[in-house]
Write the structure tokens for this entry.
Amino acid sequence: MSSFRRAFETPSTGDFESRYLSTLPGWISGNRMNKRQEAIGRTVAPYGTFEDFVPAFFGLLKAYHSVPMGKQSGLKGLSPNTTFQKHVAAGWSAITMSRDEVRAAVARRVERTVIQGAIKLRGRRWTCEELWQYAHEKVMVCEPVYHTPAELLLLDMKGKRLGIATPDVALHPLDHRGTQSTAARAKAHRDAIVDMARSVPKIDVAARLITLGRDQPVVIPNQPTGKMLLDPSERPARIVMPKKPSNSEERRREQDERIAVRWTW
């Protein structure tokens, strides 16, 4: 399997370039110190755009895979496609991993606090649309161990995938994109709150309280141990009505109050 694997990892050294890539217009060979020239003192014209080159490259690669290798090669005179087909017929199948699984496999999980739809890691702010809508305080960040990340896999506190965060670019205060970004984040946060409110069932508090009271057991009091009687003839009630002061008494009281205030000063 080692020769089979090597055959598909990369084309044989120099063979793919010299026999296939060299047929493309604009090829200048792999020696950067001795570039191929179209004519003496004249550099080779480039091969169109990169978008033109990509399909041409993969077309040549497919041709390379379909041509039998030499008898002395690791594939013993068979083409890479033929060798691959033999292993597939024998039951070989690939074991795949998603990008998230790769990110998680080479990272350590660290806890971060979400502040205004972003987190902070390695001195930078990271954000994504999922963080704008995130209603909780903490997230788990898969921080790469062996390389400087360009993006971060985010998980919620239960380990469920949340999203992919990228660096939060600081914009100039006069840059209109900053206003647009702020408005988009605020809208996403409001929409998330609205969705959460819609998912919450409506509760009739009064009906719940009435049901609670109705389901309570009834307390049955004990029989009275005695009876109190009131005979009005034996103890007549006395009601003292307040006496309304006369006008002269009111004037006298007001004069006394004014005199008292004057002597106080």
